[in-house]
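Spend some time on this chain, tokens included, and walk me through the fold:

. . .
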Amino acid sequence: MRKELTRMTFRQLHIFRAVCEHASYSRAAEIMGLTQPAVSLQIKQLEELIGQPLFDYVGKKLHLCPAAETLLHTCDNLMEQLHALDMRLSELHGELQGMLQLAVESSAKYLTPHLFAAFRAAHPGVQLSLAVANRAQLIRRLGDNRDDLTLMSQPPQDMALEFLPLLDNPIIAVAPAGHALTHAASLPLSALQEFPLLMREPGSGTRKACEEFLQQQRVHIRHGMELMSQEAQREGVLAGLGLALLPRHAVRQELSNGSLCELPIEGLPFKRSWCLLYPRQKRLSPVAEAFYSFCQRERLSLQRQLA
């Protein structure tokens, strides 16, 4: 290894990452509590140690040079290792500490805080960083190795994953209070064909599951609006724009207060499982490993608590 590289400092790397993240010397200076000339000096010194330029301006926009792309990847790996070291040292002191980076499908975001709270009761030193995304976005995050663990339904079959079926995700048909279908004792699935169905956007795991279920049942539904969240679907149903197939967890409060009704549709609810998963080749951090083991060990108890 070249001796020059051993003279790089963590301070320089933190400043470098801030410039990369914000694509701006002035914004990085503001974030780091430095002057812009101080940031420029640190980047210049880093370029001298590396022997290559890190940034280039095209027009008025800052771009990363190839050396910067390589250095940024190394920085990310280094910070990840330091994070793991911090957690391992905490383990040696008998207390688990650190950050759990968890990405969840939007249908699971209502349960995730309760799930994490049960874990944190045993490990109060652990913090949660939560990313909520649709299924397509979660698959991209898995490919980029951006999270410790992922909670989603229908794990992609073309990826090598370790996964744990964790909780049931019952999908029900809902209508606003007073809707014509709410007075029936029992309804065939085909009854939904008479009304527009409010759907999630393409890429949503719930939409994918609903479309597969309807196709299996040979029922063709008249699509209403495409909405970008379950909250928007719920509000659309409340406003009388149509019916919706939604996770029961997402409308628990509305079902309880009577503003929404679960329709007595034959064959519903249909169930999918939320699965906790990670890439098979990934080495879990101590916090992620402890959370995965906790969920595996307490799965039945969690199912009863969160049902």
The chain has a mean pLDDT of 87. The CA atoms of residues 180 and 263 lie 10 Å apart. Residues 3-76 form a domain with the Arc Repressor Mutant, subunit A fold (CATH 1.10.10.10).
